[in-house]
TrEMBL record:
Keywords: Membrane, Transmembrane, Transmembrane helix. The chain crosses the membrane at residues 7-25, 31-49, 56-74, 80-103. Pfam families: LiaF-like_C, LiaF-TM. NCBIfam families: LiaF_C_term. It comes from the Bacteria. This is Lia operon protein LiaF. It comes from Ornithinibacillus caprae. Residues 134-245 form the Cell wall-active antibiotics response LiaF-like C-terminal domain.
């Protein structure tokens, strides 16, 4: 917390100096436009340093916030054009991160173990092992069947058109998670649902209710959700990107 306070004071003092020499004009709105990108840069640097010192932190999130904050600052000084919502344009960075993760991790070794039913091949679990796919998920074919789903991506988009789907008479849980991408759901007005949506950086729009920014979340459920026999239970999580749910 002291790093954030120190950063705010440093940036605010710098802006005051620029105003006094006629380079910038200060008001609270303009000040905040300079302050929060600088905070992102400082947090990014801190997380990277903490990671290299083995004191927690994250080089992935640290470098992402460093790049994101730096691009916002370059926009403020009119070097480039880059606004907050352009964060979704940085999703290819996650492919780069995946490449470094792939280099830094070995494949999980196969282990042959004996069981009462014979021999079975499995994989030894390691603490750092992880896997994410890259690509798009589209469910928009006529009469596609809605079933419980758990979809995850390193980077990519999700498009689910429930107006074209066969939805059974039950509560159907659907979980979607990704490091970067967009989620777009089309839901008929006669289908009840509840949703828990969150983004680390980006925007959420659920049938007209919107939030955007850093660490944003939104919960929503239809009026008759609990009494309905056919309903969707949606859990959507993105690190960076946008979530949109529309009625059709």
């Amino acid at each position: 917390m002291r790093y954030i306070i120190a950063t705010v004071l440093i940036v605010l003092g710098g802006i005051l100096v620029l105003e006094n020499i006629g380079v910038a004009s200060l008001n609270m709105g303009n000040a905040w436009f300079y302050i929060y990108p600088t905070i992102l840069v400082v947090l990014g640097i801190k997380w990277m340093i903490d990671r290299f010192r083995h004191k927690g932190g994250s080089w992935i999130f640290g470098s992402f916030f460093l790049i994101f904050g730096s691009l916002l600052l370059l926009d403020r000084f009119e070097v480039i054009t880059f606004v907050f919502k352009d964060v979704v344009k940085l999703w290819p960075l996650l492919i780069v991160y995946f490449g470094f993760m792939f280099i830094g991790k070995s494949w999980r070794p196969k282990v042959i173990i004996s069981t009462d039913d014979g021999w079975k091949t499995t994989q030894k679990s390691t603490h750092n092992s992880s896997f994410f796919s890259v690509g798009n998920h589209e469910y928009n074919q006529p009469n596609w069947k809605v079933e419980p789903m758990n979809l995850s991506n390193l980077a990519g988009d999700f498009y689910l058109d429930f107006s074209k789907a066969y939805i059974p008479e039950s509560e159907i849980p659907i979980t979607i998670s990704a490091l970067a991408g967009d989620v777009h759901l089309l839901i008929p007005e006669n289908i009840d649902f509840r949703i828990s949506a969150s983004v680390k950086a980006g925007e959420i729009d659920v049938v007209g209710q919107t939030v955007d920014g850093i660490n944003r979340s939104l919960q929503f459920e239809t009026e008759n959700y609990w009494s309905a026999t056919r309903k969707l239970d949606l859990n959507l999580k993105l690190k960076a990107g946008s979530i949109r749910v529309d009625y059709v």
